[in-house]
Amino acid sequence: MSAEQVKPQQAARLRYLDFRAAVLSLALLFALAVSGVYIANLLDWAQGPDFGWSVSFEAGGLRLVDVSGVAERMGLEVGDYFRKINGLDIASYHELRQGLVREVPGVNDYVIERDGQQLEITVLNEELGIGNAVIRFGLTWLLGLFFLIVGMLVFAMKPATGPPLTFLATMGAFFLYITFSFTSKLEPPWLAHTSTLATTLLPAL
Description:
Shape: elongated
Helix content: 40-55%
């Protein structure tokens, strides 16, 4: 092989390595940016209230599927349906978030339906704390980050074009979807649409 043939091959190899390094650098910056925003929100949630319940949207409305702490002590029970919060009718998860008082200390007045009867229950807000915030919201971020790291490793070990690049993009979309699939109130507010955006991108990838 002549020197004239070797030089173009070396140049092509360098371009290939530069492309791989650039993509991995962008993926790393993406991971750091998303993680930074998420951790900032998580620290904010730690100082916010622990409402003491989780809900699921069912045919009958918003149903409590888990109750603990002060909410349990004040009388909320698994199986209750939220009908009003602080005087506002509640028919969706968005309305639930909008109606809640988030100050600590603070108070939320619930009208719930239980066994066909409506009851009024007042629950005091308690601070969530960093430990509970990490357990409740941090695990989804770690799982999403794991998916992205797997995508980066596969991309680094395989040819940097074609399926490995598509796989990396797919893992990036999974990272967004999983990280923002279970959150409290996000700042800035447009982050609340991140999971929906990732869901839209996934079929295209």
